[in-house]
Amino acid sequence: MSTETETPAPEQPESAETTEPRPNFMRLFGRYLIEANSVMVTIYSLVMAFFIGAVLLIVSDEGVRSTWTYFFARPQDALSASWNLVYDSYLALFQGAILNLNTLEAFRAGDVEFGNLLRPLSETLLNATPLIFTGLAVGLAFRAGLFNIGAQGQMIFGMLGALVIGFTLNLPAAIHLPLAVIAGAVAGGIFGAVPGVLKATTGAHEVISSIMLNNIAALFLVWAIGSQFLHSETKSELVTKPVNETATLPTLLSSFNPSLRVNLALLLGVAAAVFVWWLLSKSTFGFRIRAVGFNEHASATAGMRIGATYTTTMAAAGALAGLAGAALSLGVGASGITTNTALEYGFDGITVALLGRAKPGGIVAAAILFGALKAGSLSAQPAVPVDISILLQAIIVLFIAAPALVKAILHLRAPRGGLVTLEAKGW
To answer: How far is the C-alpha of 356 from the C-alpha of 140, rounded, in Å?
Structure first.
């Protein structure tokens, strides 16, 4: 009689799920915090910029600096004076840009109206509006591998185009205002297409040509304002004629307080950001822009017309910058523009695009941040030097443009795929 022996089955190796527990949310979040990804680099850049700004505030203040001369004898004097200076300075920036706490107390006591609370926020959004357009103009060109440094000149021509239509025509507001806005976009688009055409036909780099065009636009603005056609008929200083009331951008918060200056251009800027997002993400033209920006040689092999893409992209970017000019000439400059109306919004758009990583949502957020810094620094004078706003912007851009520097300073881990930077090709 034979006996059956049972052969034990070989042991199965434990699965990876049993040997390595799945990391929980806190562990994943912790890894994300110490990784040099685009989000954390942006956040750390802001934190380090405000920290360096605080150090420079302390160094530049003679009274606080003197307390550090006897630090080892009475360290509390230096620390207290430094903290009070930084706290008061940044609080003044906050109150000038977001909410004035003294006005809030007066409103609670019934001494001021609700509209007064909105004034700092209104000024922030007013300053952010042109930056949204110019940031989008620079960011859109970035996605095609182009560096549109000519947004300043495109904005100036957009400002002039909207101004001419604004005071020469007598039409109903429903027709006049859209026509003036479109004129600004068209003027900026034509001026923006010039570097694209030069690059497509001659290989001229857009940075060089657009820098020269910026100077041409600035000098043309001075000549145009002084011409008989544009110069004010009632003022002797260098200012243009005002646009008709039917071409003036309506304010958004005037029902709360007539002095609140933020206007319809803000909503147009947000709409433009949504349109650029759709253009880049959903349209064939946007796919061509991204493909050329990623690899122009592969795109040419696939049959894409590189020169035409450069031209149309720069024209679209110029139209966006032209909308910034229209927002100025039909908004804050509706009573007449001067050579100072354009300020440096075009050049600031470069920093906004860098901080926003050339993405429409990020550009809107960066524009609001820079608008807050500008409004806050202007309101906080003379307690806070106005240059502190420019300083913070410069430091932020320095870190954003060099993520490897942030990674080295904070000893962050390299993200998957390596560090991501914005590049413009063609040098």
So the answer is: 12
CB atoms within 10 A of CB 102: 9
Read off the pLDDT of residues 84-112 as tens digits, 9 standing for 90 and up. 999 988 898 899 899 989 899 998 988 88
CA proximity to 422, closest of 397, 401, 394: 401
Q: Give the CA-trace dihedral at 114, 117, 119, 123, to 10 degrees.
A: -130
How far is the C-alpha of 203 from the C-alpha of 306, rounded, in Å? 12
Contact 353, 147 (CB under 8 A): no
Q: Supply angle C-alpha 111, 113, 117, rounded to 5.
A: 105
Q: Which residues are 251's β-sheet partners?
A: 263
Mind listing the pLDDT tens digit for each residue in 155-211?
Answer: 999 999 999 999 999 999 999 999 999 999 999 999 999 999 999 999 899 999 999
Cis status of the peptide bond prior to 10, with omega within 30 of 0: no
**36 found inside a domain:** no
| Percent of the chain that is helix, strand, coil (3-state, to 5) | 70, 0, 30
Q: Which amino acid appears at position 7 of this protein? A: T
DSSP state of 148: -
Instruction: Tell me, yes or no, whether 421 lies in a domain.
Output: no
Number of domains in the chain: 1
Structure tokens, 64: 């606080």
What is the C-alpha to C-alpha distance for residues 275 and 334, in angstroms, rounded to an integer? 26
Q: Is residue 68 part of a domain?
A: no
Asked if 250 and 119 count as a contact pair (C-beta separation under 8 A), the reply is no
Is the CA virtual torsion 330, 331, 335, 337 positive or negative?
negative
Q: Which two tokens stand for residue 391?
A: 């300083």
Mean pLDDT of 334-343: 87
Q: pLDDT of 8-64, one tens digit each?
A: 555 555 554 455 566 677 887 788 888 888 788 888 888 998 999 899 889 988 999
Q: What string of DSSP letters covers 352-420?
A: HHHHTTT-HHHHHHHHHHHHHHHHHHHHTTTTS-THHHHHHHHHHHHHHH-HHHHHHHHTPBPPTT---
Residue 53 lies in a domain: no
Inter-CA distances, 216 with 2, 212, 221, 313, Å: 106, 6, 9, 21
Give the C-alpha separation, 133 to 322, whole Å. 8
Segments forming the whole domain that contains residue 142: 130-371
Q: What is the pTM of this model?
A: 0.87
